[in-house]
Fold:
Amino acid sequence: MQASYVELGISSMQKIYDSHKFATIVPNEDKVIEKITRKMTDKLTQAFDVLTHMKKSIEKYSVTNIASPIGTKIYNVQHIAPSTLWPKEDLRTKEDVKQNISDLNVLNYGEKYLSQLFIDSLSNRTHLGVEQVYFLASADIQKRKYYSTPGYLAQDDTYVWQLYLSLVKLRPKNIIIGIDLGVTSNKLFNIEKAVAKQIINLLDNIDHVGVIAFGTDWISPYITGYNCQIASQNTLITDECRIINATDQNKIVFNRFIDSLVKINDTTNIHVVFKQLFKSVHLNQVSMNSEPAMLVYISANKDASFNDTASILAMIAHKQNTLQMPVIINTVFITNDVTGALHKECLRDISELNFAKYNINNVNKSLYTTGIIQIVNSTFGLGLVTARIFNTLNLSNASNVNAGISLPTWRSKTKDLVVSLYVPCGIVTDLGLLAMDLHFANIAEDVTYYSNQLKYTYALLLNTDGLVLMHPSFPRPIVTNEQPRFIDIACFEKNENFTSVRARMLTEESGSHTIFDHIATVKYVWRRVLKWYIICIVIRDSDMIPKKIQTTYFADISTHYNLLHHRLDILPPSSLCRHLNQISTLDAGTLYLSASCFQSPFSYLRGTTGMSISPLTLQSYMAYIKDNTRLLANPGLKEEVRNDITVLSHILNYLMRQHLHGSLYKYVVRRYVATVNGVVQMYPGTMLNIELEPTRRHWFVRATEHPGKVVLTSPYLDIGGAGYIVTISHTIFEGNPSGEHDSTDNVVAVMAMDVTFGYIYKMLLETMPYCSEQDGTTVKCFIIDDRGYLIYHPHLIDPNEKGPVEQQHIIHKESLVANDLLNHKGFVQKVLCNNYADGTIQRYYKFNTSLNTVLTNVVHGEHCVKYYVTAVPNTNIFIGVVNFTCNDMATFCPCSTVDRLCLICNRVEQNECECPCECPLTLNNQICTQMNSSLIDNDLCAKELELPTITPQYDASNSNNKLHASIAASLKPCLTFLCEIHTSYDSCVGLLGCEWCHLDVDGETKLQHPFCASLTTCFHGVLGSESPYKDFQIDTTASDELFVSKYSSVGPVAGSIVALCFILALVFYCYRQYSLQFMERLYPCRTQTNHGGGGCVQMSSIDADTFNDDVTGHQDQLLANYPTAMDSTCPVSPYCVATEYRQAVTGVDSDLGYSTMTPHEESERLSFALIELDSLEDDFNTSDSISNNTSLLPYKAPKLLIDASKRICPDIEQLPGTTQLLPKHRMLAPVTVHRNMETI
Structure:
């Protein structure tokens, strides 16, 4: 690895830091926390001031304009269009709005007034980070007369009404939903499903719910604590409907059941419907605790049997008299035209219990509670429809609600994490609720980016209930892709003396508390933010206090070192070129400033300076950085950033020389260095995604876990066009004049370079020639990292795979070896940690990198597979050699093929072979001191690793930002890769941009005359294989012309058939066809976790219908998609799931094993559907060569009513010693018993 030290420039960079003076500056935590508290207080105060102003205006308007009341209005700030309203001066000059009623539409005047009020109130307040503002009118809910959904709700209003319903307290609800399957239109049937799911999603944990689907017969999901089936099996059904608590898990059960329903071409007997609904109420009387029962019948069947409404009402009256609680009947009629009037009239009579109309007298009026009918024609406004239905239980007055702030909520539509600030409106009467959604990233920015020196200090944000809202182990709000889970602070701070600290935090406005133990001295400093938040800073005195570089000057940097801002499209240099598929320059390195570098990270990321940055802004950054006079105003950077940039700039010349003239120049894709403060400098100069946070990337975090060692990552698909690459990184320590350093020193930066995957193989062959991938050999070599993930293996990347297989564990490919390695004491440790952000207990392996010997077989009898494993000194990797002489030896290592679920979650055996996996951690927001200690004794998982989001960082309509798409393809290549001149395998393997083409188009037949070709022509060695870079258009280079004319598979055949002129025309055609187009990535993007096992994304994010289609590609470890002109969004992996799952307990036989997990790691969340088993066939083939497969037999439900491809498991109660699996992640799991993995 000495070559890596030289190529990375470790010694040179360390000498540069050693030559600078460092000073210990003990931070004043009181001053720091006061500043953070003041900023957050100012933001919230200003936001509430805006709400209060609008509240007073609405109340004043309502008093003077009774004829044109204000209705519900949801206003997305990004969609504000003042020109659609009347001029502002009209509203300001007309004091008496009544005089103008004649000139305006009375019904629309209140809406226009409210819209203008929103615009006026939010103008010049972009710094607040407002996403949307809305007014929820109580009058809209209290209207009981049936009418269509209001047209002004032309958007999803689910979340806003969920907020309303959570604030206006309701009695516990007992709801049974009936769904009519006799629908002729798919559109209407989908609306039916949407209404049912909306009702379920707006319920609370204390509510009870059941679902029945009615067709020629009826079905309901089988709800029990003792039975469950895997997601791909048929949904279990029963002849009775049981209601259960509307927990998050159970909501998913019902939603999936509803999704599985299929419509029928038959009528529905309404008499049977309500007879069964009342039977279900009678069956569940005990569970309802004498609270009213609500029946909600949803129908779009215009031809249903409704001729005898009188008999239906008579039956309802009889059934009601036998019950101990009132039953409220609400109906929803789905229609898109004026037909179905008779059916609508029948439903209205049933909802309103119109007994008098049909002369029905035997009615118990004490239990007489009327319901409503709602007519719906679209999926818009369903939140309001649900609120009206719930209002039949008598909502409390919204004006009694106190002003407040909601918990952070992830909006699936906008992909944002927001908090809702709300105030009640109403003086004499109840007007409604006024609320404003703010980006949580803006509220918590100073806590999120407080420090990257987590060993010494970090910050927390919690609410006054003690729930942690922001923690270093949580993903940044701006890249969050699912609803976070909020757990009590006692789960994070596990010191036995923390109970007293917690009590003080929740009761005192401010304070500090120091805890002493035998490990460290920990100091907690906290401040209250208004009535809702608590900011806490934690300082660990046992660790070395990080030092800061004393003031440095750019000096002669401007003359000796050329440094450009990475936005080459806005401030282009004199010479631009194309490095593979990226806009680059070889004349200089580029500077990237992450959000951590700015005093207001949110303003940089989401404000005008981030999304549509101007040349003037960039020039101000660079001028400030190079200003030796220190007279220029700071454009918003943190004070330590300028010193970081100055120090890093000294290494650029070295990186340039090594890249252009070093011994590995043919194999290195790019070189870069990043500081702990978020500064990145790179060569060749390249543009990066604005949301990239280098300190949370895999190569950075793993390097800091192994200070002073060379660290290699697993291979992944480079977004820049280099194919599969491996990142090599190394830490840089604080400067020391003596030049002496050890692993305990504080890390100030990480240097890294990306090399081709082929170079890793080439490097292996140079030291171990017998590792050559030759036919007939019985020897295989592999390289793994300290977590057991493969960096090299002969079968790590299958050319016939639909997508790349990344983050493969040694258990996936060499189960016999992995199983035996567990028997070496002190070498492998199975580790557990709690990830409270996604609610999982993670299991992963840690290999002892201090190994100074060669390990071989421990278990005797497995003599036909012999292995040797040893550590590479001063690195995080191990090299292994396997020699096999037989193919029939078996071992068993359970690995899920569809998610990361562990087989057995209630015990952990250190010597038990299993893939890295996870178990559910469900604390339900309880205080950890009240929970079973086995759940909370595990260490806290390290901070969440992440990739930048796919959001383009430029405005396509801005002429300054069109360079990226318009000229990237026309730029000349920075370096010319003449793959064709390399005639041997040894000279071709690992070359940047080249592949040794040795397989025909079928991926199996070997070419008689293999050759060296470009990646776009022979990706991963297969002639004509589909390249992830096939659609990136570039000008054809001379080397491309040479290849087309020489290796076209069409030209030689055509030459034997047609004349020379036709050959020339065909060659020209092939020339055009082989020209690369804009890059469209085909594979799932990659998300690393702190365990190397891949970040978790909800299984609901994967679309079953599109899984087998071409999807988009992997994210680079460092680079974002922006500079490569890739416009496709990045899908998620099917192998990582949300975490509150429950393990299946079925009535069918199974060996309780899983086949080998072969995760196509997220190469993100990550928006968020189950994969078909057919799509997993290739994955099963990647497991052991010889295996015994079994499967679970599905329960056969009536095909008439259930769509088997979408059926899932009902919810269950947890049994002792079992693991609960979230229903939406249950899947039919084939079982593979491993036999000599990869030995054929």
Observations:
- The longest helix spans residues 29-64.
- The mean pLDDT is 75.
- The chain is about 25% helix and 20% strand.
